[in-house]
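input
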Amino acid sequence: MHTEAILPPQAIPAEDARRLRRELRHAEWRKKAQALALIAPLALFLFAVFLVPIALLLQRSVDSPEVHDALPQTVEALTGWDRRALPADAAYAALAADLQHLTSGDGNAGNLARRLNNEISGYRSLITRTARALPLEGPPREALIALDARWGELPYWQAIAKNGAPYTPFFLLAALDLQQDNFGKIEAADPDAAIYRAILGRTLWIGVVATLITLAVAFPLAYWASTLSARSANLVMIGVLIPFWTSVLVRIAAWIVLLQQNGLINSALLASGIIDSPLALLFNRTGVYISMVHIMLPFMILPLYSVMKAIPPSYVRAAISLGSHPFAAFWRVYIPQTYAGVAAGVLLVFITTIGYYITPALLGGPGDQMVSYYIAYFTNTVVNWGMACALGALLLAATLVLYAVYQRVARPGAAATVR
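output
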């Protein structure tokens, strides 16, 4: 019997081993560079249009340079002031010098007056009146108090000292119905101005109700579509996707026509004898829910349909053949396998609905406006970017918390447990 001799492998020379390792590293680096080059345009796009605006929004919510930039000498003179008695004469002299500089054309007293007016109503007129009267004759303290007695009141100086830093928690605290007292301690805001927690709660509640109604309507429709043939299911999906091809404003205008007292819905109900008087379906919470559910149905149906289409119908039939009641088989076998689609649809619909602005503004009443309405109000009407960005940051935080809960509850890729 012929046998071949087994030769031991020859050792690779050290120089060749180093060269092979170097070439391997270069090859791996080239592959990584190619992969990075492919995703670089998308990464830059996301960075420019997504991350940068969010960072600017968060920065504007704590940015407060008006007092710091307009009254630098005054802020420096108030450093170390205990805020319990009127400041020294040097602070009055610094204030007069700073306001004189603003009125000389090198600054903007309007931004300063607007910012301090957020702290104390009437501060705008005080700044404007003082700036117009400059320069003053005599010692600055006596001259300023003689011009306006408010310069001899402690709260007006405390407002300057409290807002002297370039960054402030004022807007974020106000968005949570909190405030800082004159000594920097956080306390509850004035009950007459404490509205933003209620607005946030209303926003979340409207989002929850609209999401649940959308889920209740979309689930049976998605299930029915998943049981149809491919041709019939495609027709159903085309009907579901039709709203995507229509402007939101057009759909809202159509709902205004349908829901008004003399609209098609009330006219049909009156003609059929179901009701005796028109229903109040417009400019209230009912109209908001109807329009929201109509707009958000595709966002719920599509995730549900994609998951339901992949569930083999044989599972439920097998459970029934083993003696399970049809409803019990559906509830305990089929429903758990749709959790991923339900979670994705609920997350998508809820996050979208809590950011609604147009629908509540056109179809709802004063008590149906959400956080987005007040963001637009502070942006376009009051021009208070700090408060608008603070409310936006609050809405972003609520969204991130919701997404974190979703990540813990709905584990992607986990198989549904069939019992």
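quick obs: Residues 65-164 form one domain.
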